[in-house]
Amino acid sequence: MHKKKNMITILGIESSCDDTSAAVIRDNLLLSNVMAGQDVHARYGGVIPELASRAHQQNIVPVVDKALDQAAISPGEIDAIAYTRGPGLLGSLLVGVSFAKGLAISLGKPLVDVNHLHGHLLSHFIKDPAQMNDSPSFPFLTLLVSGGHTQIVRMESHLKFSVIGQTIDDAVGEAFDKCAKLLGLGYPGGPVIDRLAKTGDKKAFVYAKPRIKNLDYSFSGVKTSLLYFLRDSVKENPAFIEKNINDICASFQETLIDILMEKLIIAVSNTGITEIALAGGVSANSALRDRILYEGNRRGWKCYLPQLRFTTDNAAMIAITGYYKFKEGHVSSLDAVPLSRVLDNF
């Protein structure tokens, strides 16, 4: 592929959890985005860190090779290599970080370290030739929802933002997975709950909602409420879960979405910002996407939903973040180490 003068080509590498991914972006146009999943974790009901890191070692070379091939570029055409530094599983991150460093040394290219959450925030700026989409205008608010994080983020620019609300305990994705585990639905539980809830009555059952100050969230009490509700109901009727599975899922999902939306509505009122974006793994939930659009239509918001392929962990979001950072002169040194946890403001 012919490269115009002054265009920036970024190879992105993502390995924060159980998906190995590599992507190539030229300026903000996506040229390739390759992913390799790990089905082995389903039998254990969650990601096993040691198995995840071993799988990344097996997948990373073919995934990067395929990403370059699909983008029709040679390794020498890369201007910089962006990689996920954290947060995530340390063993998984180490594979991606080490590979990125080795490739950078061999090619004589600079490195750009990327916060995984920052990647989710900027996923709306990926220009996908297969599905061109509008990007939010600054400032805008992002509801970032995933298995490990739940935050409301005020975006001032591609590189300037602040967390104005976040969970004080569990993330909303954890609540979905806990519910699925209690119901025997397997892992990952979020997509299964979403599917079952489509034919359930979302008003059938009532679960406890937390009262948390400011714009912060809490989901631990909702999980506990479900646990006690199922325990008492099954005691009275051993077949309760089987007979009411769709209603249980619909009601629980509705409770979580109510909690998310309540604080987001307050955030819009407090800031006066009406451009709203959704990001993170839980942003694939169909009921949440519908509610965001519904509230946006009611309240005059302009809402942005990520493509489903960019809701899960993927290297395209790492590459786009690396692109904006590299443009501003941000590079990382070879002695940078992976971080399992990062500061709230990244």
Summarize the structure.
The chain has helices at 49-71, 90-107, 116-121, 172-182, 190-197, 220-236, 240-271, 286-299, 315-327, and strands at residues 9-14, 20-26, 29-36, 80-86, 111-115, 140-145, 150-155, 161-166, 275-279, 302-304. It is 41% helix and 17% strand. The chain has two domains: 9-131 and 310-327, Nucleotidyltransferase, domain 5 (2-Layer Sandwich); 140-306, ATPase, nucleotide binding domain (Nucleotidyltransferase, domain 5, 2-Layer Sandwich).
List the helices and strands and how they pair.
Elements: E1 9-14, E2 20-26, E3 29-36, H1 49-71, E4 80-86, H2 90-107, E5 111-115, H3 116-121, E6 140-145, E7 150-155, E8 161-166, H4 172-182, H5 190-197, H6 220-236, H7 240-271, E9 275-279, H8 286-299, E10 302-304, H9 315-327
Parallel strand pairs: 1-4, 4-5, 6-9, 9-10
Antiparallel strand pairs: 1-2, 2-3, 6-7, 7-8
Helix pairs in contact: 1-2, 4-6, 4-7, 5-7, 6-7, 7-8
Textual characterization of the structure:
- By secondary structure, the protein is of the alpha/beta class.
- The chain has two domains: 141 residues, ATPase, nucleotide binding domain (Nucleotidyltransferase, domain 5), CATH 3.30.420; 167 residues, Nucleotidyltransferase, domain 5, CATH 3.30.420.40.
- It is built from nine helices and ten strands.
- The strands form two sheets. It has a five-stranded mixed sheet with strand order 3-2-1-4-5, sandwiched between helices.
- A hairpin with a 5-residue loop joins strand 1 and strand 2.
- Helix 4 runs parallel beside helix 6.
- The protein is globular and about 65 Å long.
